[in-house]
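# step 3/5: fold
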Amino acid sequence: MPATGRDVTGPVKKRWKLIVGTAALALVVIWLALFLAVGGDFYQSVGEVKASSSSTHVRVGGFVASGSVVQEGSVVNFVMKGEESGETLDVVYRGEYPDRLRPGEKVVVTGSLQPDGTLAADVVLIRCPDKLVTEKMANKVLTGSGLERLLY
């Protein structure tokens, strides 16, 4: 094969860069379109739900108020308190008792508002703990290893 003196790797590299760049741009555009279609909000606050005219398929987030969890058979009643406003919303959930439902836990509830102002919940989601490994356990394992300087 005679040497032509041309470098064929230059155009090939440029073509791959163009393909990868186009694919990345397409993914960003698709993600942005989906984000805007959903509305960007995972849930509404208690105050927003109370002020809105929509009563069906509402998703609201807040905290379980102290001393408000009451279970009667397969019905669980609790009061949800707004994160910032402090407004409250009575929630009635029919079904299996949600694990870790206790005062102070952050919850997101999906359901519909009833004429009396209570939320008839279909789904109750409870936030997972922030730390999977306790700080005390992490300090015990990391002390002296030199990693504590990187993590803290």
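# step 4/5: annotate
Residues 10-40 form one domain.
# step 5/5: archive (pending)
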